[in-house]
Amino acid sequence: MRIALFAETFLPKWDGVANTTCHLLDHLALRGHESLMFAPEGAPERYAETPVIGLRSFTFPFYTDLKLVSPIVSVERQLEAFKPDLVHLVNPALLGLVGLRHARQLGIPAAASYHTDLPGYSEVYGMGVLRDSVWAYFRWLHNQADLNLCPSTFTKQQLENHGFQRVKVWSHGVDAATFNPRYRSAEWRERLTGGHPEAPLLLYVGRLAVEKRVDWLRPLLDAVPGARLAIVGDGPVRQELATLFEGTPTVFTGYLTGEALSRAYAAADLFVFPSDSETFGNVILEAMASGVPAIAPRAGGPVDIVADGRNGFLFDAECRDEMIHLVREVLGNPVYLRYLALGARAYAESQSWERVMDQLLDDYRVLLDSRAILQKWPMIIPAPRYGRQGKTTSPRRYV
Q: Cis omega (within 30 of 0) on the bond before 12?
């Protein structure tokens, strides 16, 4: 297959979307498929076997980590030379419109994958009045795709409740060799506990941004005397968090990659993740692969990952006290903590990227086979069209 990808987020920005996209490009190369990717400027010219074409972009004013490409840009020349069989829109916003338009011009199917809860972010950043409009825009965009993919059953239900059509779960995986208990070391334990390796170590990994609710971790240190906290990552609220946690047994490491990140995960006793806006939660799965059970909210992607009492616990997404209670109870029972750690590792070992990506390739093939059938025997297929609130307004026809 020849796949053209349009990715709104890619390297050098590193987050769950970029992580998933990199694994996809690796897998396409592994399976011998050809691919071409379009991304905002600043991306590397090639990743794995995929040429990457950087397009002129601008910074989104309310979320400065997000670069957007004008929807009127044309990549017709590059696509005609590549001759794709299928287009994949990764987290489409504006660049996704470019890919969608060209897919229609070329008469090839388009798949779109939803990764980020931008409607939810609108409330977090004080723009809740725009939430319905944001949902309406993404519903309109995604419903023009032949297949919509999302990373969890929770998110699938959320999208369908808002009128998204043709939605299928495309879960995420983890590299259980890269994230592994064998990376546990006395050196990193010493470093992340601030010189107190005997103390219980709590860990957070992720962006330091408002929507991640990292400030929820501050009361833990008062409620669990003797516990230490390591915060791995960087972001726009790092300085605010440094001020908030000043005087507490907290270590900020900044952004970590490679073996350093693997060792940071493996050094911890318990992974605590307060964010309630995750469509999946890659870092939770990475912690589990490292033999570290997780405490996470009963919302979004963690619902698919965390099994209460087996590899961690879920807490009411609006109840910080429940989160604190669970952390205290788990740390207070070392034998049970070890049981959860073994369960976390066992679950992660079953969630390989290879399995996840092979399922995606099967979905690609189904789209291509369906398009071939329609071209041979054209049919009129009625489909509902959804209005602003997700209610059916009138039929739409596909040929």
A: yes
Going from the C-alpha of 229 to that of each of 116, 149, 219, the distances in angstroms are: 27, 35, 11
| pLDDT score of 58 | 83
Question: Per residue in 362-398, is it b (16+ CB within 10 Å) or e — as a string?
Answer: eebeebeeebeeeeeeeeeeeeeebeeeeeeeeeeee
Q: Does 208 share its domain with 87?
A: no
What does the pLDDT read at residue 119? 73
Residue tagged 């890619």 (tokens): 10
- All residue ranges of the chain with pLDDT < 70 are 60-65, 121-128, 374-399
C-alpha Rg value of the chain to the nearest Å: 22
pLDDT digits (tens, 9 = 90+) for 261-293: 999 999 999 999 999 999 999 999 999 999 999
How confident is the model at residue 13, as a pLDDT? 84
For the domain that residue 340 is a member of, what is the CATH number? 3.40.50.2000
Question: Could you tell me if 334 and 193 lie in one domain?
Answer: yes
pTM value? 0.84
Report the pLDDT value the prediction gives residue 392, as an integer from 0 to 100. Answer: 41
The predicted pLDDT at position 206 comes to 95
pLDDT for the residue numbered 116: 85
| DSSP code per residue over 48-66 | TTEEEEEE-EEE-TT-TT-
Please state, in angstroms and as integers, the Cα–Cα distance from residue 71 to each residue in 58, 97, 211, following that order: 12, 6, 27
My answer on whether 21 and 157 are in the same domain is: yes
Based on the fold, state whether residues 194 and 151 are members of the same structural domain: no
Any idea which residue has 């962006």 for tokens? 207
User: Which residues lie below 8 Å from residue 126, measured CB to CB, with a gap of 6+?
Assistant: none
What domain range includes position 14?
2-173+353-398
Whether residue 149 is found in the same domain as residue 263:
no
* 268 close to 292: Cβ distance less than 8 angstroms: yes
Q: How far is CA 160 from CA 111, 150, 381, 389, 394, in A?
A: 16, 11, 20, 12, 18
Place of tokens 């379009």: 38
pLDDT of residue 388: 45
- How many independent structural domains does the chain possess? 2
Are residues 190 and 334 located together in one domain of the fold?
yes
Distance CA(244)–CA(22), nearest Å, equals 34
* Predicted pLDDT of residue 126: 65
Residues 198, 143, single domain; the answer is no
Grouping H, G, I as helix, E, B as strand and the rest as coil, residue 385 is: strand
Please count the other Cβ atoms lying within 10 Å of the Cβ belonging to residue 2: 14
